[in-house]
Amino acid sequence: MGSSSVQCIFFVFIILNFISLSTAASSHGEVEDEHEFNYKKNDDKGPERWGEIKPEWEMCGKGEIQSPIELMNERVKIVSHLGRLIRDYEASNATIKNRGHDIMLEKELEAITDLDDAEKHVRMIDPKQIKIGSRKYYRYIGSLTTPPCTQNVTWSVVRKIRTVTREQVRLLRVAVHDTKQEMESSPIRCIFFVFIIFTLFSFSTAATSNGEVEDEREFNYKKNDDKGPDRWGEIKPEWEMCGKGELQSPIDMMNERVKIVSHLGRLIRDYEASNATIKNRGHDIMLKFEDGAGSIKINGFQYELQQLHWHSPSEHTVNGRRFALELHMVHEGKNGRMAVVTVLYKIGRADTFIRSLEKELEAITDLDDAEKHVRMIDPKQIKIGSRKYYRYIGSLTTPPCTQNVTWSVVRKIRTVTREQVRLLRVAVHDDSLTNARPVQPINKRMVHLYRPRV
Ligand SMILES: [Zn+2]
């Protein structure tokens, strides 16, 4: 499924309604005949051609409010007026059916795995047992995601990402027995995984308590919130620098305040592969190096690489421009002083280092406070691509906002895909759309831009 599996998981909720319609799959308007369309790329019956297969399916091609969509941070507006999803379900007789492209329902799955066009009375099924675990949901108006792609469908995509085992996914997929089709799934195809996945999970863990704790974090990134960035300094005495400190980070690297110098010298990075743990810290994803990953040298002083993590969008800005992602490589010297090396990313081609971590990121996406041994990670694989960097003295950008941190912000803006940014963000599942602290006052600080002498 690759990285699109995470994306798929968003498209869960409305499909649940299909289950509650008990038997008649046809009554909700989706097409029954599994051979009329498929999910193959560049195929006569593939998704790009659905609109041409039958006149009554033309919306699949021409419709302008089609589903699924990408739930991108930038286009999401947080509101409270929609109100909670009020679900008033009750148990009903249900039938499990293999529709050729997906499966409706549960543990009778194995029984129909090898039957063509199997349909099987199941038993009483109670949709109330489908756990959602959150009151938050995305809402938009879209369409059915299979022909005839009927529009004006109200989608409610539950924000919380739930879990399922690999085996459950496999079972559902195998049961469909169209697996000779390419298994790299398009986002559209994923929906069918998810629909089923969600159902299975809920049934198999019906006894698990699911009291979701709403944001128990000590701080967050919400504006005008008690725990938001403007209040960090008041939350705990030891966090007071967040409010009072005069050398705080991040800052804007504005041309006018940047002085170009050559005396700083190149960033001398002397990294080596180390065992690493990937950890969900609630506000970000951190890769922690367990045994010496090497060091950088600044002004002749050595700082050991401790961990790295990401912020999206970027925390530092350049002439007011904010980028899609920012990497922080956190180093510590023997005297306890910190040095952070930062790389900024805009949307474009995939970053190869993040790509190498995608599997691990997906694996921790649904674990709370997950910590997971990864494997040997080599920081040398983090591409910087430039000798130029900005240098200034600032602070940690999260509480306790400790000052006198030496920042080296690589000048070159690198690229990352939207999907990679999203994956890093979704993995955090802290209900925040961002984890970027607002830009802090510069307070007469000097910002240098190191440029090698030519
Ligand atoms: Zn950071």
Automatic annotation (TrEMBL):
Residues 1-24 form the signal peptide. InterPro entries: Alpha_CA_prokaryot-like (IPR041891), CA_dom (IPR001148), CA_dom_sf (IPR036398), Carbonic_anhydrase_a-class (IPR023561), Carbonic_anhydrase_a-class_CS (IPR018338). Gene3D superfamilies: Alpha carbonic anhydrase. Residues 1-195, 217-451 form the Alpha-carbonic anhydrase domain. One of its GO terms (molecular function) is hydro-lyase activity. One of its GO terms (cellular component) is chloroplast stroma. It is found in: Plastid, Chloroplast stroma. The keyword Zinc applies. Pfam families: Carb_anhydrase. It catalyses: hydrogencarbonate + H(+) = CO2 + H2O. Its main location: plastid. The keyword Transport does not apply. Its EC number is 4.2.1.1. Keywords: Glycoprotein, Lyase, Metal-binding, Signal, Zinc. CDD domains: alpha_CA_prokaryotic_like. It is an enzyme of class 4 (lyase). Reversible hydration of carbon dioxide. Belongs to the alpha-class carbonic anhydrase family. Belongs to the alpha-carbonic anhydrase family. This is Carbonic anhydrase.
